[in-house]
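Dear all,

This email documents one entry for the complex benchmark we are building for the journal club exercise. For each entry we list the sequence lines for every component of the assembly. Then comes the predicted three-dimensional structure of the complex as a token string, followed by one or two observations. Please use this as the template for your own entries, and keep the labels exactly as they appear.
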Amino acid sequence: MSLSLAPPEISPKRRAILDAAAELFMKEGFGPVSMDAVARGAQVSKATLYAHFTGKDALFQEIIEESCQKMQALVPQALANHAQPLEAALAELGAHWLGFLLRPRVRALHRVVVAEGARVPELAQAFYTAGPVTLRGWLLDWLAGEAARGRLQPDAPLPLVAEQFFSLLRGDLFLRATLGLSGPIGEEEVRTLAEAAARAIARLYGAPPA
Amino acid sequence: MSLSLAPPEISPKRRAILDAAAELFMKEGFGPVSMDAVARGAQVSKATLYAHFTGKDALFQEIIEESCQKMQALVPQALANHAQPLEAALAELGAHWLGFLLRPRVRALHRVVVAEGARVPELAQAFYTAGPVTLRGWLLDWLAGEAARGRLQPDAPLPLVAEQFFSLLRGDLFLRATLGLSGPIGEEEVRTLAEAAARAIARLYGAPPA
DNA sequence: GTCTATAAATTGATAGAC
DNA sequence: GTCTATCAATTTATAGAC
């Protein structure tokens, strides 16, 4: 009697289809990928493909939803290090999250959702909720804790502070990465950007040094 | 003997094709648009279409490049209002630019470039140069003027200041709009966001009130 | 350059046997 | 569920006449 949250009983063929399709969609986008290619990649016949999914759209939607779930699971929730000063803690947290956001897989997911979001709005909504909304929620909780502890004395609403931190964190690098213009991203580049964002937030809203 | 910079002598049919294709690509993305649909929209035969463009990709590329040029022309360069205090000037400038960035056409252009950028890198590069790089360059010049005038005393490199202002300006709204999740965007929403960004930059790097 | 008509390939999707 | 074989529609692209 397992209470496991892992999705139970998923057929191997279905799993192979989902994996192969995910790889193709992330790599080439939605349009250029044919059902033939998916079947070939999953080493499955097209009939089997259509036995599991009603069509290309349904397959795509399940891929995105599954990826969103994985995305949420990938970001460790508990990163609060209250031993550090506010700025250092923000910088560490920010570097970790930014590093995640810049992963090629996450950028690829973002790209295909942006591309097909206009056609399938509920898909864009699912991505936005699983991604930015969730992250901002966690940050908001953490900031509220810092404020309660007196290390943050914002004269602006906490949601605005959280949004500004994320905006600063993304910076220009996020834009470039989404466009596919950034090569491999160095860890120090990420850390530098996160530190700049943390410094700005700390100076804007941090408690004055006693 | 005109020295006009306007592109000279473009055939009416070619113009019609470019306009019809631009509208279709912005509305539906690259993949779903067929050459048949373009020909129909431009009220031109497919043979004519292929007489002007070697294929769908070439047509698309010319559309994007032309749109990038229009984009640059659309943003007035001279907005510097030195009569206002730094924060007010930044807010006004920011509201104007953000309003431009959030235009449905500009978001649509961004979307298709993101979608096809991985397939055609020079396209993403052209967009990035015509858009973010150009805007940041203008802001940098303006900030340098403010610094020379003593109204800005940044303890960070000016390029970082410019990047942070743009990041704050985009905020979450830009992300939502790119995903197609924002409905019609109110002018006051834009102004509020721009004011918050301007306030942050002014407090971080502005000269202390004498 | 421009058209009508069509070629040639690929697509998403299914029928029927096992 | 799974396969082989195939359909019907659509796609990009071109021949040939004007």
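Observations: Chain B has nine helices and no strands. Chain B touches chain A at residues 28-32, 111-119, 121, 124-125, 127-128, 132, 136, 156, 160, 163-164, 166-168, 170-172, 175-176, 178-181, 196, 200, 203-204 (CB under 8 Å).
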